[in-house]
Amino acid sequence: MTIYTTIAIRDMIDHSKEVYDALLQTDLPLARAKVSRIVARDTQNLDEAEIIRACVESVAESLVDGIAAPLFYAVFGGPSWAMFYRSINTLDSLFGYKDDRYRKFGSFPAKIDDLANYLPARVTSYILVFSSMILGYNFKNSLYILHRDGRKHPSPNSGLTEAAVAGALEIQLGGTNFYNGIRNVKPKLGDAKKEFRTEQILQVNKLVLLSSILTAGFYMFIYSTCVWFWEEWKFRN
């Protein structure tokens, strides 16, 4: 139960599905309200394409700090490590913003959070590529965009999963967002081979769900292998 509280996959999938349902009803005000629950950007003036982009970006980004990293620390460190990671991530969410109010205090949790997510983000980004192959998405393009654009993002970690998703779905993420009325331009990830469509929300959900399962399995395999070798070494010595 303790480990379960550190993993946020179900809520993100549910919220993104609510955005999808609102778009199916062509209810843009409702879709804006729903997507505002999972993004920090201003949503009151977003059109349908921007709502879809916001939703896809948020789900892709959440794969690291909401799923992959907590699983990593839970498997290799147990519940206490998973809870410690979640506390770091929460501090970063609350104070890790580069504004005048929290600049000095917020820089420390932001850097620690980046460090804590470093390895899980890189493992998961390649698992995303593998998942896109299983699901029949463009896995070759996913790998290409991951290598080409993954490091363009201001975050050293979330840009990797966003780039892998952008490549798999053949869309372009990033661009102009507004936060409290202030314009913010982020690097563009991927190529706009396809226009934004509502079904891409379901596609990214499938990618994240499958990648979560494969990530958990990969961690367990590595952990079990290490334990087996350790026990063999102790037995022979």
From TrEMBL:
What is the topology of this protein in the membrane according to its UniProt annotation? Answer: Multi-pass membrane protein
Specify the pathway. Answer: Cofactor biosynthesis; adenosylcobalamin biosynthesis
GO terms for biological process, alphabetical: cobalamin biosynthetic process
Q: GO MF terms on file?
A: ABC-type vitamin B12 transporter activity; threonine-phosphate decarboxylase activity
Indicate the principal place this protein occupies in or around the cell: membrane
Q: Which UniProt keywords apply?
A: Cell membrane, Cobalamin biosynthesis, Membrane, Transmembrane, Transmembrane helix
Parts of the chain that traverse the membrane: 207-230
Q: Known InterPro entries for this protein?
A: Cobalamin_biosynth_CobD/CbiB (IPR004485)
What GO cellular component is one of the record's annotations? plasma membrane
Write out the annotated subcellular location. Cell membrane
What is the similarity comment for this entry?
Belongs to the CobD/CbiB family.
Role: Converts cobyric acid to cobinamide by the addition of aminopropanol on the F carboxylic group.
Its name, as the record gives it, is Cobalamin biosynthesis protein CobD
This protein's species is Leptospira santarosai str. ZUN179
Instruction: Give the gene name.
Output: cobD
